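QA checklist item 7 of 12: single-chain prediction sanity check.
[x] sequence parsed
[x] length recorded as 586
[x] structure emitted
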Amino acid sequence: MDAQSRGRADEIDPADQWVLNPQTGDYELRLPQSGGDSYRTPSAAGPRGSGRRGTAHEGGGERRSGGRNGEGRGPVPEQRGRRANGPRGQEGSGPDSAGRRKRKQPKARRKKALLWTGGVMAFLLVGLSVGGYALYQHFNGNLNTVDVGDAGNKDVITANAPVNILIIGTDKRTGKGNEGYGDKSSPGHADTNILFHVSKDRTNATALSIPRDLITDIPDCTTKQPDGTDKVIAGTKNTRFNVSLGQEGRDPGCTMRTVEDITGLKVDHFMMVDFNAVKELTTAVGGVKVCLAHPVKDPDSHLDLPEGESKIQGEDALAFVRTRHSFGNQSDLDRIKVQQQFIASMIRQMKSDDTLTSPTKMYSLADAATKALTVDKGIGSIKKLTALAKELGKIETKNITFVTAPVIDNPAEPKPVTVVLHPEKADQLFAMMREDTSLTEVKEQKKAAKSKQDALLKGTKAAAADVRVDVLNGGDRAGAAQETVTWLQNEQGVLKSTNKANAPEKISKTTLEYAPNQADQARALAAMMGLPGSALKKGTTNAEGLQAMVLTLGADFKGAGVPITGPTKAPEDIQKVEADKQVCAK
């Protein structure tokens, strides 16, 4: 049924395009056809909406096309919550109407629930709209999964915690027409890498691009072999980031561990796509708008676009995100900037009414995305991805910021072709992300942060002589526990502080565990050390006798007397792209 016969196009609920056929028990896609409505099962609805009218079920009778009201064909499944022969949009009033779906939410709220991760999770919109078992099975069959062991989160999400998802674009030449891209002999390196950090309160997200030519250390990593056994792949010092995947048999779990070492952020999940994903996803949404500050005619990527706005898809879209010789100073960093602008535009396109109200586009997008995706087992099903979608869909486009890890030219190279992290700006940005500080102005988050800090400072503080604390070293700084105890005793007067050596395991953030009746001590120690409110972990039972608080120093500890409170603003002059704004590539 087309939008005009339903009412205004912007009032269409995507779920209403899929109806249950009572004769077969399957959900079927209702699409506009000249001469009447037509239905397709998920298996018959191809990714381009190229349909064949025929049986709705193997062995079933053929549905004949008829007039506007369905004359000359079998019974047509009613739209859920609507009366078959009543006025358009009228709620059903039959005996079974109480069990039907309630009136949909207002348009603005529905649009907010759409997903934004550059297309790789767009298919979840269809998964959320359709309850059909056959459709779930179809998309489940498209997904590829990798067991990354303890590199990720076995649960879909951790409640009341940020979510970090690593999006990896490989340079592997898979798929028809991709022979001219990437490295001919590549096993599939980590060519494009974006860490999506979703805030604890789900109001904002930071998309951190990590340059493939970043020189870093790749840690040892355990990979699952085809026979189910584990194999430890030795780490490599002082090498390019992109070989954290593919080289020596490294899997995405190795890339996740490398990102964690670089940023101090635990990566929960990964999603990996190849060249085909860009071509198929952009075609599925009918093209993505890009803007150029000057015309481009690149003989290497074969990109040929005029100045101003263009709409590109397929090969042109892949050429746009792959070209290195068309923008800026022709470096990988400038290509990252263009890729960020492209993904931001794709997010806007996917949130548009043109995509939302088209069941053909949504099915095509879902089918293309699931075929292109490889994910970890923690999110390796449509059901799990849907659970993740419900969390990520709360974020508004205006609160998504793309940023590139701050880097400088590699000083070890006379003619630098690689980069290293900026000695100051990089950790400042990573610290903001570790502290879950937004790069956009989110009123709700600012209010919550202020309330949390006020609560931390409010109340009496114990005298230094009454503070009792055990200090453990959970970071990489040798002797950090003793260094802190010495500073506390000699500089702060905390004589009841004790060095308890190394913590049982490494941690990224410093924590202070205390009992409810030690709150005054915790406030005093937090003020001395400059601890953020997120570092304080209040227990449930009171301390007894001489029981001490437990201070565990994490990777964020920079030295005794150095405040651990994270920065409140991003470093100046870092590369940023805001997802809700169009920028012309220069």
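[x] summary fact logged: The radius of gyration is 27 Å.
[ ] second reviewer sign-off
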